[in-house]
Amino acid sequence: QVQVVESGGGSVQAGESLRLSCVASGRTFSSYSMGWFRQAPGKEREFVGAISWRVGSTSYADSVKGRFTISRDNAKNTVYLQMNSLKPADTAVYYCNANAAGGTYWGKGTLVTVSS
Predict the structure, then answer these.
(1) Cβ-count burial of 75 within 10 angstroms (0-12 exposed, 13-18 middle, 19+ buried)?
(2) Cα three-residue angle 49-31-95, rounded to 5 degrees
(3) DSSP string spanning 10-26?
(4) Are 58 and 49 within 8 A, CB to CB?
(5) What whole-number distance in Å separates Cα of residue 23 and Cα of residue 40?
(6) Which pLDDT tens digit goes with each residue over 66-88?
(7) Which of 2, 71, 76, 111 counts the highest number of beta carbons within 10 A?
């Protein structure tokens, strides 16, 4: 069982930045591919971005490309989501998942609110 915990959410003004963190348990964190998703009120959960386990390659949703950056620190079992130039449309609960050999594990999310 892999435990996933997100942190770093909060309330910001449009144009500001936030960095979310996601810690996943397990001694084989470096072998997990990690993903970020978000769910806005009244909407379905959507893909934000992901980072692979092998070479750390990243992919992003078009809506955040150029503004959000995913990175990972395997020594700290942590993946980050750096969010710049935030917009009110980015308001959502942000979830992290860990794709491990035993399955996909989700955190409980962290709320990001962007006001205009």
Answers:
(1) exposed
(2) 35
(3) EEEETT--EEEEEEE-S
(4) yes
(5) 22
(6) 999 999 999 999 999 999 999 99
(7) 2
